[in-house]
Design a protein that fits this description.
Layout (H helix, E strand, L loop, with lengths): L7 E10 L2 E11 L4 E5 L6 H9 L6 E6 L2 E2 L5 H7 L1 E3 L12 H9 L7 H6 L4 H19 L15 H13 L5 E5 L7 H16 L4 E5 L3 H7 L2 E6 L2 E6 L1 H5 L2 H8 L8 H7 L4
Parallel strand pairs: 3-8, 3-9, 6-7, 7-8
Antiparallel strand pairs: 1-2, 1-4, 4-5, 9-10
Helix pairs in contact: 3-5, 3-6
Length: 274
């Protein structure tokens, strides 16, 4: 992967709110086909970074490039058009709509035919387009194993299934890059294992690059190609999972100052990459 041109480049981004520094001179790059994770204690700036990449926040300093294009000033919808998908820390589904309709909403802006052209060219353009979109949605439903709830109202589903539906909507665009904000938060062990498998398959079989925030250190170290650690809005480590796990600054940020270099701090982090 190292020889490829970056798909995403974040260059010296700084973001503050009312004098509180959320991000300070943070840079990262993600190459095509990479599964890149951002970790760090609560309040470290992880979600702020995803919000800058997706366009929800505009940093005061720095640039963001996607597929070589400067997207720093683009709105979220424009970035979605370019191929950036997104899930949220707190569920952002339309709870009153069915699972199928939620996923179709994710593809809505891809429809090229408007109402008038749809009437004129119904036997040509619009009808074929609608069928093609339906096929894409069916592929996603099969992939995420949610056939049995396709017509259920999203807000009535168990939490783990709702998180899966949110992922379905995020990948409905077939994005080049998908941003996952704590996709496994609040899940039991079995649900986490399922979600981790879906994310790896999205990356390996569907060819989607992934930037993921996740608190479960075991999952992060197990499935990520590279990991970056933020603490108080600054990068304190970045590299291969095993390199990050062995980093003294990372252990200090997560577990406090160690009394002895060989004590519990080493064991608790390094067991995840054993």
């Amino acid at each position: 992967m190292g020889d490829q041109k970056p798909l995403l480049q974040v260059e010296r981004v700084s973001l503050s709110f009312g004098g509180v520094q959320a991000l300070a001179d943070v840079s990262l790059d993600v190459v095509p086909g990479e599964l890149f994770s951002i970790i760090g204690p609560n309040g470290a700036g992880k979600t702020s970074m995803l919000n800058c990449i997706s366009g929800r926040y505009n940093p005061q300093e720095g640039r963001i490039r996607f597929v070589g294009r400067d997207v720093t000033g683009l709105r979220p919808n424009a970035r979605a058009d370019l191929g950036i998908g997104r899930t949220f820390q707190n569920l952002a589904l339309f709870g009153h709509m069915t699972v199928l309709d939620n996923i179709m909403v994710g593809r809505h802006h891809l429809l090229k035919n408007n109402f008038l052209t749809g009437m004129v060219y119904w036997l040509g353009g619009a009808q074929k387009e609608e069928l093609a979109h339906r096929r894409e949605v069916e592929d996603i439903i099969d992939f995420l194993e949610i056939q049995h709830v396709r017509n259920a109202v999203a807000g009535t589903l168990p939490y783990g299934l709702r998180k899966r539906v949110e992922l379905a909507r995020a990948i409905a665009l077939k994005p080049k890059l998908v941003l996952l904000d704590e996709p496994m938060a609040g899940m039991n062990l079995e649900e986490k294992e399922d979600m981790a498998r879906y994310i790896v398959d999205l990356n390996e079989e569907w060819g989607m690059s992934v930037v993921m925030i996740e608190h479960d250190m075991g999952v992060v170290m197990d499935i990520s190609h590279r990991v970056m650690v933020l603490d108080f809005g600054k990068t304190i480590a970045s590299g291969l999972p095993e390199e990050v796990a062995a980093n003294t600054h990372v252990k200090r940020a997560y577990l406090g100052e160690a009394d002895d270099p060989s004590d519990q701090a080493d064991e608790e982090i390094e067991e995840h990459v054993a």
